[in-house]
Amino acid sequence: MTDVWSQRAQLYVESDAHRSGQDLEQLVAWAAGARTVLDVATGGGHVARRLREGGIQVVTCDAAPGMAPDVVCPAEELPFADSSFDAVTCRTAAHHFSDVRVAIAEMARVAREQVLLVDTAHMGEAGERAESLRDPSHVRN
Ligand SMILES: C[S@@+](CC[C@H](N)C(=O)[O-])C[C@H]1O[C@@H](n2cnc3c(N)ncnc32)[C@H](O)[C@@H]1O
Predict the structure, then answer these.
(1) What is the model's pTM?
(2) How many whole angstroms separate alpha carbon 132 and alpha carbon 120?
(3) Helices 22-30, 46-53: inter-axial angle, 10-degree rounding
(4) At 97, which CATH number?
């Protein structure tokens, strides 16, 4: 999994759909008031960039070393103590997680106040099949 993602790293940095968007602005608005944030599955680091512009201290993590996060780790096993960050963010990534319930439990464990998660919506089984054909790293919306 991580090799595939690492090969895509530059694409995610440059992608217009990831660099900006209403969902990104919504996440930034929700995070207002946090002083420290962990951005899980950071990819091209766009959430972290926007939050840092607002003066928030951000640690990034991702399972793929090629994404150059601060910490390489799976969302299902976050190497941080309980309540380490005011908020945890995770944008457009949970549909790739092998065990989303464990990942969300981990995010809740390391967050003091908020877990802010934005992802693609489930639109039926045909949509899931189409996504998996388009992108083999898709697990479930
Ligand atoms: C679509 S990109 C993330 C986009 C990014 N959050 C943004 O806002 O632009 C999906 C990311 O999820 C990461 N990923 C996939 N499975 C993961 C897992 N189990 N744990 C942590 N990161 C994972 C990939 O390496 C990739 O960087």
Answers:
(1) 0.94
(2) 14
(3) 50
(4) 3.40.50.150
pLDDT tens readout for residues 56-87: 999 999 999 999 999 999 999 999 999 999 99
Does 139 fall in a domain? no
Binding-site residues, ligand 1, Cβ < 6 A: 5, 12, 18, 41-44, 46-47, 62-64, 67, 74-76, 91-93, 96-98
| Nearest residue to 97 (alpha-carbon basis) of 129, 119, 124, 116 | 119
Radius of gyration of the chain (CA): 14
The total number of structural domains in the chain stands at: 1
**Which tokens sit at 16?**
């217009």
Cα 53 to ligand 1 centroid, rounded to whole Å: 21
